[in-house]
Fold this sequence. Notes:
single chain
Amino acid sequence: MQLKQFNFNKHKITFALLLMLPLLGEAAVPSWQILPKESQITFTATQNNSPVTGKFTSFNGDIVADPNQLDASHVRIVVDLASVSTSYSDVGDTLKTSDWFDVKMFPQAVFQASHFKKTGNNSYEADGTLTIRNKTLPVVLNFTQEEYSDQKAKIKGSTKLKRTGFGVGQGDWAKTDTVGDDVQVNFEVTAVKVK
């Protein structure tokens, strides 16, 4: 009787180990810390059919990513909207007001994604959401892997947004004849592995 019990336990342990094999085969997806001095978020809008460029100088994020484990990767990037600056200082100040980003009421923009797809040799697509002024909309980022090692990674990418979808530009500014609706966003993110 004891022998049968032993065999049952042995089979139970073997079965449990077999179930764990897929988990043991994959390493934990690493976390990354953004290097602010080597990263940037820039944008280009149009006013009176002329380009207006700008950038956000303060942003951070939680990045858990591995190009070999896209299904288990996820990111959350938080942008300090009050850090906006543009090629014209008065435009940068205007963007902080209640008609535009309203940084007092909505101080942050948040991009989140957990769905990634490889689209080429070193190119990828992130299918996520962007929240600005408490309005969340789907956004697709296209990016390339410029550098990747055990300790450091760099990506470069872009997306195009419709500012009016987020309520950026209230009242008369909601019209797109003076300030265009399309905003081109470009980014470069360099990060180091933290675990």
